[in-house]
Design brief:
Blueprint lengths: L53 E3 L2 E3 L6 E5 L11 E5 L3 H20 L2 H17 L1 H10 L4 H21 L3 H5 L1 E3 L5 E9 L2 E5 L5 H14 L3 E5 L5 H12 L8 E4 L3 H10 L3 E7 L3 H13 L3 E5 L4 H5 L7 H4 L3 E9 L3
Parallel strand pairs: 7-8, 7-10, 8-9, 10-11
Antiparallel strand pairs: 1-2, 3-4, 5-6, 6-12
Helix pairs in contact: 2-4, 3-4, 3-7, 4-6, 8-9
């Protein structure tokens, strides 16, 4: 009504002189209004499922074809993933794009000092160590026994440390001073070949991938790898470790898909100078060797081996794993006065 004095109220349910207002009893002093006891509980939130992608040029990408294949995990529930997930299925163009990225990265990577490449490899080992529990859980989800998963992750970290220490020692182990007739010095010096295609073993997923890719990049090569078809999710988790390490984009590129599609494309690509393929299909191994020979490529094919093989100290690490993808340059220098 006109002339009536209006009284301001506060959120505490009292007017300015402290008197409790009608209907405000039970409200918390200075706090929000309480829910009614009979109000409905909030609906459970929708979980955010992970979108799995390939790793090319330091970025996570989908297949340009839009194709996927389905991967089913074990019954062990340790994350929010549904039982079956979609993983990108690499196409011919995905291989070509990855090879182009690796080709563009090879000059700057080879130009780095071996000591610096060793530092970068050691940083990768640090990241793997910090995410070891996630890697173990991922391997278990992919069907690996828990004890084997723990052993595989430990061996993978140790393998990264091994190549970090080996990076600046390859030249001393491989280079030679050749005896020559005449007033010259002769030196044989190892050099990286370029882009190497890797078809990683199906099992062990993580250790097999590291044991085939790290020898390639330690000496200055770049790599385009096809991850395990059986458990590509662990390989993608490894790529997350790569993305947060010091590895420049394009040095290690990881595709997901089917070996019978990707391996022949890699073997035929003329910018791929070598290929290391671990394939269970003998006919596919023969095809890769033949296609590699057609493009004058150094092609190495192998039958799959079990985890015990890869856990051995001389398997997956050592100079014998590095040499196959090195070229030797011989330099002649006149003897000075």
């Amino acid at each position: 009504m006109a002339g009536e004095k209006k009284t301001a109220t506060s959120v505490t349910g009292r007017d300015d002189d402290g008197t409790t207002l009608p209907g405000s009893a039970g409200l918390p002093r200075g706090g929000p209004i309480a829910r009614h006891a009979d109000s409905e509980a909030p609906a459970p939130r929708v979980t955010v499922n992970k979108a799995y992608k390939m790793y090319v040029g330091g970025a996570f990408v989908r297949s340009e074809s839009g194709r996927y294949f389905q991967v089913r995990g074990s019954a062990v529930g340790h994350d929010t993933d549904p039982p079956t997930v979609n993983v990108p299925r690499a196409s011919r163009k995905d291989v070509r794009d990855a090879v182009l990225v690796a080709h563009n990265a090879k000059v700057s990577w080879a130009a780095r000092t071996p000591f610096n490449r060793g530092q970068i490899l050691y940083r990768l080992a640090e990241v793997l160590e910090s995410r070891s529990s996630e890697l173990e859980a991922s391997l278990v989800r992919g069907g690996t026994d828990a004890d084997d998963a723990a052993a595989e992750v430990d061996a993978s970290i140790d393998r990264a440390v091994f190549y970090a220490g080996m990076a600046d020692k390859v030249s001393a182990l491989v280079a030679t001073h050749n005896p020559v007739s005449g007033p010259h010095f002769g030196f044989s010096i190892p050099e990286p070949m370029g882009v190497i295609g890797v078809i990683a073993p199906e099992k062990p997923t993580l250790l097999g991938l590291l044991s085939t890719v790290l020898p390639v990049v330690t000496t200055g090569n770049t790599a385009v790898a096809l991850a395990s078809e059986l458990d590509p999710r662990t390989a993608i988790l490894f790529c997350e470790c790569l993305a947060t390490s010091d590895f420049p984009g394009g040095v290690i590129n990881v595709l997901t898909g089917h070996p019978f599609e990707v391996a022949p494309i890699m073997a035929k690509h003329r910018e791929v100078t070598g290929i290391d393929a671990w394939l269970s299909d003998a006919e596919l191994r023969t095809q890769v060797e033949r296609l590699g020979a057609d493009s004058v490529k150094r092609a190495k094919t192998h039958a799959p081996r079990d985890l015990e093989f890869w856990l051995g100290e001389r398997q997956g690490q050592g100079i014998g794993w590095v040499e196959p993808f090195l070229e030797t340059k011989t330099v002649w220098h006149p003897v000075g006065l």
